[in-house]
Amino acid sequence: MKTSMGRAAIFLIPAGKMNMACGQITISEAVREFLTNTFGAFQESTEHISGYWRGCFDGTFVQFKVAFLGKKRIVLLDDFLEGLAHTMGELSIYEETGEDAWEISPDPDKKYQL
User: Fold this and answer.
1) Per-residue pLDDT of the chain (114 residues; tens, 9 = 90+)
2) Is 28 in contact with 18 (CB distance < 8 Å)?
């Protein structure tokens, strides 16, 4: 039997920032806790993923993938990624949802709490 889990969402986190503090836990722990609590499961790829942004090498990344049904939970992911980008001091986080690619950036006028 085959059951749809919805569309996939994929995003990349700079590998060098995974152990950075995020309150009482690390970025890595914050991401895993959020994905487990929000989506119930996730995939994490720690293989060597290199990124190039606007013609420049942008480092190596850890890739996360989740499945989502409907748009409600993807909005939660986007809000989380905005806060995460802010916490890490990143201008943006790369995300793919379904067939679309997005640049998720923190709002400079918004206060974030992960």
Assistant:
1) 998 888 899 999 998 899 999 889 999 999 999 999 999 999 999 877 877 776 667 678 899 999 988 888 899 999 999 999 999 999 999 999 988 999 999 998 888 777
2) yes
Residue span of the structural domain in which 42 resides? 7-104
CB contact burial 21-48 (16+ within 10 A = b; e otherwise): ebeeeebbebbeebbeeebeebeeeeee
Query: Is residue 114 domain-resident?
Result: no
Number of structural domains found in the chain = 1
Q: Is residue 89 part of a domain?
A: yes
Pick the closest to residue 13 from 78, 82, 60 (CA basis): 60
> How far apart, in whole angstroms, are the C-alpha atoms of residue 53 and residue 34?
27
At residue 70, the pLDDT reads 80
| 3-class DSSP state of 24 | coil
